[in-house]
Write a structure and sequence with these properties.
Elements (H helix, E strand, L loop, with lengths): L18 E3 L5 E4 L2 E5 L15 E4 L3 H12 L9 E5 L6 H9 L3 E5 L8 H9 L6 E4 L7 H12 L4 E6 L5 H11 L3 E10 L20 H13 L5 E6 L3 E6 L22
Parallel strand pairs: 3-4, 5-6, 5-8, 6-7, 8-9
Antiparallel strand pairs: 1-2, 2-3, 9-11, 10-11
Helix pairs in contact: 4-5
């Protein structure tokens, strides 16, 4: 059986008119599912997590940016092998599954918990046990564990898409990138959400001692230039996320891959 189509100009699985927002931006429907934006105060008790209803940690502008990005891609993504870092309470899993219709969807989160009942219900009711798997109590900075999970899930096949919405911290995000980017197929996409938090007003105290994630974006730009497109083919930067597209460079199993080794700066 051929894999279901993915999203993109040639795939067209999800279109903007299939996501219907309430005027106040508090929630939207995607097919038969309801996603409740946690950033907007909720007063309607009907929209608590439960049957076909999920809390969602993305705003309408961010979702619109994703729709815009994938709508304008030259090629579709057909039934991708997908890795998602950062699940929070599980609402993003059905979102990305409906968005991409992946052949295999691996979700990873550091929290010491298990799937909430409404996520298990979604998976079991739709018979997706062989296409969705989640791994809790897993640090995105644990390179060996990430590799072990992905090798077991994909059987050595390359990854098509990684979505990192986990810690948003420089060291951890770099560790995940160095573990998983070599396992992307050439042309595969590595998405880093919330790269711009250092430039947002109002969160200065909470993030005061953290290295800006902007530093990683700068290093990725430098590696793109130094590698003439062989390591990184291109970077698409939106205010809500950055998409790093893998180039054709052969990286073997990626065990010793370090981004810094692919950056050249003129000596001073």
């Amino acid at each position: 059986m051929a894999p279901p189509p993915g999203i993109g100009r040639n795939g067209g699985l999800i279109q903007a008119d299939e996501i219907r927002w309430e005027p106040d931006g508090s929630r939207f429907t995607m097919r038969d599912l309801v996603f409740v934006a946690v950033q907007v105060p909720q007063t309607d008790e009907r929209f608590r997590p439960g049957h076909n209803c999920f809390h969602f940690h993305k705003t309408r502008p961010l979702v619109d940016q994703y729709l815009s990005y994938f709508d304008t891609r030259a090629a579709g993504i057909e039934g991708p092998r997908l890795v998602e870092l950062g699940l929070f309470d599980g609402g993003s899993v059905p979102f990305w599954f409906e968005f991409f219709s992946p052949t295999r969807h691996v979700g990873i989160d550091i929290q010491n918990k298990s799937n909430p009942p409404h996520l298990d219900e979604y998976i079991h009711r739709r018979g997706l046990e062989d296409r969705i798997e989640t791994h809790w109590s897993t640090d995105q900075a644990d390179r060996e564990r990430l590799v072990e999970i992905c090798d077991a899930a994909f059987g050595g096949d390359p990854i098509d898409v990684v979505v990192d919405d986990a810690s948003h911290r420089y060291t951890q995000t770099l560790a995940s990138f160095e573990a998983l980017f070599p396992r992307l197929r050439p042309g595969g996409l590595y998405i880093i959400e919330d790269w711009a938090w250092f430039h947002w007003r109002g969160i200065e105290a909470e993030w005061r001692n953290e290295v800006p994630l902007t530093r990683l974006i700068q290093e990725l730009v430098e590696a793109t230039g130094a590698g003439n497109g062989h390591l990184i083919q291109e970077i698409d930067l939106r205010s809500g996320f950055a998409v790093v597209q893998r180039g054709p460079m052969e990286l073997g199993d990626g065990a010793g891959f370090r981004l810094a080794e692919h950056i050249y700066r003129h000596p001073r």
